Model the fold of this input.
Amino acid sequence: MVVKTEAVVLKTVKYGDTSKIISVFTREYGKLSLIAKGARTSRSKFVSILNPMSCIQAVFYLKESRDIHLLSDASSSRVHKNIVGDPQKTMTGFVMLDALNTAVHTRESHPVLFDHLVEALDGLDRAERSPVNYLIAFLIALLREAGYGLKLDACVRCGGKLDREPLVFESQFGGFACGRCRSPDTTLTMAPNHLEALRWLERPSPEVWSRLSLEPVESLRIVHLLAGHLCRHVPGARRLRSLSLLESTVVG
Ligand SMILES: [Zn+2]
Done:
């Protein structure tokens, strides 16, 4: 069956002398692998558009019995030239892809999550400041769509207000415990402004995400919290390797 769908390239690997195998997250068919024959030759129409984070319209032969499908055509569907030229934005985008790759299994269709990813990449491209905010907003949405959403409105243990410092993140319960309920052996304390940041970036309106100003170290702390929560809950997940590269571009 020949199908056409929007896709975001997650990873590419060389195959043979001239081809590439690309892992893509598609809007209609979830995550799958495509072979782009001849994609590494200079004459190929694919040569400049099949890179990680590229947004494409892909046409391919979908064969239910196969793990790798044949890409017959691809064109660029959105251009994010401000991400490509900026190391911090590039690494921020790579963490989005890494987290998505961890959370989504092969051939699980998830159009809502696809739209969240594209929205986050579009916002990241346009962002004049606070690029990591787009990653935090994407991780919040990814966790929700993957079934590990955070509870941010009340203490996960007593249901009371989250107003006393320090708050403790309790990953097993998917949210924060108040100062009265924290267990003595927990170490992952968060300041109330981290909770406020999560509440702000949980809003489904990308135009407000960049208005939140966070110190780089604080935004990384929140990213670590969310990534750790994801890896704790997704079976077989490993630590997101892209995070250390993001750290080096954010704090040097
Ligand atoms: Zn409590």
